[in-house]
Write a structure and sequence with these properties.
This protein is an alpha/beta fold. Helices cover about 40% and strands about 20% of the residues. The protein has one domain: Carbonic anhydrase (Beta-carbonic Anhydrase, Chain A).
């Protein structure tokens, strides 16, 4: 047995001891308050980001590029991972969370600008991002360094995923859709590990959002207002 798996099982034993009595209320059904769509990155601990330790509170989805888009024979649709809690558990809040220094956004940027290719499974994921990011790549200011360009595209990607949800007939009109960015690279003005709101139901203007949501005004921030 590998040392890594042994350590993971030890960690799970501590988890089970702590959580053993926390599942009583969710044995037969779940009614999460929100579905969160996060990038699959080992540096972003999705439940920990929100301080969540309550089973049943959040329906968490993860994939490279925090995508809500799925490709079918009939074209692009909202990913079933995201749609399931909306359709079946009464969830009416979606949070799309990108993060600074996103590898999926970086790889898509490289594919669009330099034709860099990845193994087929990764290329499939990037192909879902590329059509939504290409206009953003073309609109980037010419004087940005690579890191700044990527972090602006992180916001742009979040915006595009929010827009896709809001434009879909599959998502009820009353669903709240929030776009946020998790920062562990000192890109935004807060502390490492803070989440910054960049989009609320399609609204991106920082001052408009701060006026509308004064209770979280200090957490509303963008690097790119295009």
């Amino acid at each position: 047995m590998s040392r890594t798996l042994r350590e993971l099982l030890d960690g799970n034993a501590a988890h089970a001891a702590d959580f053993e009595t926390r599942f009583d209320a969710v044995q037969d059904a779940q009614h999460p308050e929100a579905v969160t769509v996060c990038c699959s990155d080992s540096r972003v601990l999705q439940d920990h980001v929100w301080g969540n330790d309550e089973p049943g509170r959040l329906f968490t989805c993860g994939n490279i590029g925090n995508r809500v888009v799925q490709q079918t024979a009939d074209g692009e649709v909202v990913s079933g991972d995201v749609l399931y809690p909306i359709e079946h558990t009464g969830t009416d809040t979606v949070v799309v969370m990108g993060h600074t220094g996103c590898g999926a956004v970086t790889a898509t940027y490289d594919a669009l600008t330099d034709g860099v290719s990845e193994p087929p499974g990764i290329d499939h994921c990037l192909d879902l991002l590329a059509p939504h990011l290409e206009p953003g790549v073309e609109a980037l200011p010419a004087d940005l360094d690579r890191a700044a360009a990527i972090n602006r595209l992180v916001e742009y990607n979040v915006d595009r995923q929010v827009a896709f949800l809001r434009e879909s007939d599959e998502v009820p009109d009353g669903t709240d859709v929030f776009g946020v960015v998790y920062d562990f690279q000192d890109v935004y003005s807060g502390r490492r590990g803070e989440v910054h709101v960049v989009n609320v139901d399609g609204e991106r203007d920082v001052e408009t959002l701060r006026d509308a949501h004064p209770e979280v005004a200090d957490r509303i921030e963008r690097r790119w207002e295009y």
